[in-house]
Amino acid sequence: MKKLLFSACLASAASLSLVTAATAQNTNQTATIQDADNLKSSDAALFNQFNDSVNTERLAMDEYTLPELFADSLKWDGLSESIDVVFINEGAGYRNQLLFSLNDGPQTMLIDDIASTESILKETQSKLDRKANKIAQVESDIAQLETTIQTTELSVEERAAAESDLSKKQKELTNRTNALALEKTLGDNGLGSMKLGDSKSLSGLSGGVGIDFFIKADGARRDAGKIYGAAPNATADGLQHLIAREFKQGNDNWVLLGFEDIYGVHTSEGGSSDRDFNDVVIAVRGVTGRRVDEPQDVPEPMTIAGLLLVGGLGLGQARRKAR
C-alpha cells in the first residue's frame, strides 16, 4: 500500500513539476542594445503608415484594421533575430524616458531623452529663448523691488509686503535659472536630438522572452518622475497609460504602442490629463501579444488545480487497490 501511495504522489508531483518547468521563463534574460537603421530613411512608406496614426489629440487607430492587444502580454515572436524599437513621434511637454524589462526582470534604460525638433511638440530654440527672457524679466522685477525698498518711504505693512515679494522673486529666479541650466544639458544643447524613425535593436535573445515597456515621465529632467507601464494596477493613479495595436507586414510582426504621461483622470473629469496616448509613440518589430477580441487561455492556476485533482484521484485509486 505504501508503495502505491508513493507512486501516485510521485506521479502527481512529476506532472506538476513539468507544468512549472514548461511555463517558467528565464528571469535572467538579457539583451544587447544597439542603434539600428532609421526606419523613416530605410522604409518611408512604412514609417508614414505608423506616423499617420498619430495626431495632436489622441492616438487614433482603427481597431478593426489594427486590432488592440493586451499591452501586458507582449513577447518576442522567437522568429526575428532581434526586437527592434522605432521612435515614431511624441506629443509631450515632458522630456520622457523609455525603459524595458525582459521576463519581469529589472527595468533597463533604452532611450534617456525622448525629444525631437521634428515631433508634434517640437523642441526649438525659441522655447529656450522664452525661458531666458522670463529669467531676464524676473531679474528686472527684483531690481525694481530692491530699489523701492532702499529708496522709498514705506509703511511697516508696505515694507513687509515688498520684502515678501522680493523673497518670492528671488526663489523664482533661482528655480528658473537652474531649470534652464538643466535644459541646456539635454539633447543637442537643450534641443531634442532624436530624429523621427530612430531605432534601437535588442539582440541576443533566447528561449521564451516576455517584454514590457515603460516610460519615466519627465525622467530626463527629474529623478523622481513617475513610471508608467502596461498594468494599471502598478501605476500611481491606477489608470491605463499604455495602449497597443497589432500590425502585420509580410512576415514581420509589429506592435504600435502609445503612452500617456500625465497622472490622473481626464480634464473633463477634474484631472489634468488629456488621455491622448501620443506622448510617446513607438513601433516594435519582432513581438506578438494576445488580442483583446480573442478568447483568453485558461488561467495557469486552473491547470495546476487540475493536476492536483488528478493526483488526489490517483491516491484514492491506490487506496482502493490496496484494500
Question: Which key terms come to mind for this protein?
Answer:
323 residues, elongated, seven-stranded antiparallel sheet, alpha+beta, disordered N terminus, four-stranded antiparallel sheet, disordered C terminus
Biggest pleated sheet: 7 strands, antiparallel
DSSP strand tally: 13
- The percent range for helix content is 25-40%
Number of helices: 6
Low-pLDDT residue intervals, each spanning 5 or more residues: 2-6, 8-25, 302-323
> What oligomeric state is this?
single chain
Pairing-aware structural class of the strands and helices?
Answer: alpha+beta
In whole angstroms, how far apart are the ends? Answer: 8 Å
Shape: elongated
Strand content: 15-25%
Order of SSEs: HEHHEEEEEHHEEEEEEEH
Q: Taking Cα atoms only, what radius of gyration do you get, to the nearest Å?
A: 28 Å
| Average of per-residue pLDDT values | 84
Q: Domains counted in the coordinates: how many?
A: 3
Describe this structure in words.
The chain is of the alpha+beta class. The protein folds into 3 domains: about 45 residues; about 180 residues, no CATH class; about 60 residues. The chain contains 6 helices and 13 strands. The strands form 3 sheets. A 7-stranded antiparallel sheet has the order 1-7-4-12-11-10-2. A hairpin with a 2-residue loop joins β10 and β11. α1 runs antiparallel to α6 and α4 packs antiparallel against α5. The radius of gyration is 28 Å and the shape is elongated. It starts with a helix and ends with a helix.
